[in-house]
Specification:
- The protein has 500 residues and is of the alpha+beta class.
- It has 2 domains: 264 residues, Aminohydrolase, N-terminal nucleophile (Ntn) domain (Glutamine Phosphoribosylpyrophosphate, subunit 1, domain 1, 4-Layer Sandwich), CATH 3.60.20.10; 183 residues, Rossmann fold (3-Layer(aba) Sandwich).
- Helices cover 28% and strands 22% of the residues.
- The protein contains 18 helices and 23 strands.
- Helix 13 links the parallel strand 20 and strand 21.
- Helix 5 packs across helix 6 and helix 9 crosses helix 10.
- The protein binds iron/sulfur cluster (SF4).
- Iron/sulfur cluster (SF4) binds next to helix 8 and helix 17.
């Protein structure tokens, strides 16, 4: 049987896919997260509403589109649209999503364009019923997988690797396998990063790739009987009152039915390589990894940074919001008082309206405004979590000087980003990464700071208090844990300038 997309009223095709969005002209100078995933099996609960709030907590992982699919027995109800979770759903829409099982997704595109047709969950038909799949990560063998699927006459509707995974599962099931064997066989055809939540008419499935590059956690809701929840981060459990149970392990599949959760290792060679950038920046500071909040880890990064690269200064400030925990840590270790020097406008999302020329010249003040009386006449240490292109950092330094800062010393709580990511994070191509082409001295001049220092790679890993081998840190080293095929590498790497 050839897997086909169901023709639901919510579906659209490439022909009628007229709701597209472009990336804003003012790009944040940060790597962009790929996606957030969420799933719940709770027959007596309003699963669509639980999923809505789960996605709401995961909004930082993707702001381009959002979607929820629910299962009421064999019937699938789906709503997905471009926009923020709060824009895509309302009470009336959630009421149209009944059922006992729900799968949700919030997306930032790293493969496939930013269009409604590429929004998730991806829903496909199988001989056992429909499946709805939500994916966080990026496959690196998309060319080969696409070829395989096309050769077997699969109906590829979107341009995403996530749809390919869904179709590969459907193909295996249609060849005679059951849900679990079909998922395992399809996943063994995939290379790259994938944390998956898959809804079926009879149960909910969670799967992590053999390296566990992207996070995926299990939570429990209530106690008698306990209901299970899957989510990218623990902050999505907190918001619905679920308790963190444990992580889905690298190479593990969990199968959640009405009364149980069972687990199996589907990969013969699981080897944990969690993305270190999840800990430094992507995941929310109130999410738990390794039994502590990421806020605590990020404070330790700041402490380590102060020990490695002290500065003679009057105040420490952080770049809101992500640089703040490390700035507090820097202050604690250095004894230099921490103060707020930049105020962030927290009440606006991403804007797709282009600013005027004069606004553009005023640069980052749309988002960050300096506290002049705090900064005036001070020697300032400004702490941020990373520098990607350096464009925002330069404007920020200018803003601090215009506000009266006497000296600006920049400290970065991660090493220089020198390599692009192929596993689900948008870090630009290598030539756009400032540290790939410039030395720290050159960056210091370009940003017009009095001094600049990055945290060491060793310091970053030591602060995790975990086995350093259990992390991917390829964007700092070029040491990619999952081999990246040459044609894909060539799209982002400058072979002539940097040896890998
Ligand atoms: S390359 Fe960097 S951003 Fe990508 S998974 Fe590895 S550590 Fe994370």
């Amino acid at each position: 049987m050839i897997p086909k997309h169901p023709a639901t009223p919510d579906d659209d095709s490439q022909e009628n896919d007229n709701f597209t969005s472009s990336k804003p002209e003012i790009q944040p100078d940060k790597p962009e997260e790929a996606c957030g995933v969420f799933g719940v099996y709770a027959p007596e609960e309003d699963v669509a509403k639980l999923t809505y709030f789960g996605l709401y907590a995961l909004q930082h992982r993707g702001q381009e589109s959002a979607g929820i699919a629910t299962f009421a027995g064999e019937q699938v109800h789906l709503h997905k649209e471009m926009g923020l979770v709060s824009q895509v759903f309302n009470e009336a829409i959630l009421k149209e999503l009944p059922g006992a099982i729900a799968v949700g997704h919030t997306r930032y595109s790293t493969t496939g364009s930013s269009r409604k047709v590429n929004a998730q969950p991806a829903v496909v038909d199988t001989r056992l019923g429909k499946l709805a799949l939500a994916h966080n990560g990026n496959l690196v063998n998309v060319t080969q997988l696409r070829e395989e699927l096309l050769q077997q006459n699969c109906n590829l509707v979107t341009t995403t690797d996530s749809e390919m995974i869904a179709l590969a599962i459907a193909q295996e099931i249609n060849a005679g396998k059951d849900w679990l064997a079909g998922c395992i066989q399809a996943c063994s055809r995939c290379q790259g990063a994938f944390s998956l939540v898959i809804g079926t008419p009879v149960g909910l499935i969670g799967i992590r790739d053999p390296n566990g590059i992207r996070p995926l956690v299990i939570g429990t809701l209530g106690s008698n009987p306990a209901r299970y929840v899957l989510a990218s981060e623990t902050c999505a459990l907190d918001i619905i009152g679920a308790n963190y149970l444990r992580d889905v392990q690298p190479g593990e599949l969990v199968w959640i039915t009405e009364d149980s959760l069972t687990s199996q290792q589907w990969s013969q060679q699981p080897q944990r390589k969690l993305c270190i950038f999840e800990m430094i920046y992507f995941a929310r500071p109130d999410s738990i990894m390794h039994n502590e909040s990421l806020y605590s880890y990020r404070m330790r990064l700041g402490q380590q940074l102060a020990q490695e690269s002290p500065a003679d200064a009057d105040i420490v400030i952080g770049v809101p919001d992500s640089g703040v925990p490390a700035a507090i840590g820097f202050s604690q270790a250095s004894g230099i008082p921490y103060v707020e020097g930049l105020i962030k406008n927290r009440y606006v999302g991403r804007t797709f309206i282009q600013p005027t020329q004069s606004m553009r010249e005023s640069g980052i003040r749309m988002k960050l405004n300096p506290l002049k009386d705090v900064l005036y006449g001070k020697r300032v240490v400004i702490v941020d979590d990373s520098i990607v292109r350096g464009t925002t950092s330069r404007k920020l330094v200018k803003t601090l000087r215009e506000a009266g800062a006497l000296e600006v010393h920049m400290r970065i709580s991660s090493p220089p980003v020198t390599h692009p990511c192929f596993y689900g994070i948008d870090t630009d191509s290598q030539e756009q990464l400032i540290a790939a082409t410039k030395s720290v001295e050159e960056i210091t001049k370009q940003l017009e700071v009095d001094s600049l220092a990055y945290l060491s790679w060793e310091g970053m890993l030591t602060a995790t208090r975990e086995d350093p081998q259990s992390f991917c840190s390829a964007c700092f080293t070029g040491d990619y844990p999952i081999p990246v095929p040459e044609p894909i590498k060539r799209t982002k790497l400058m072979f002539e300038k940097v040896a890998v």
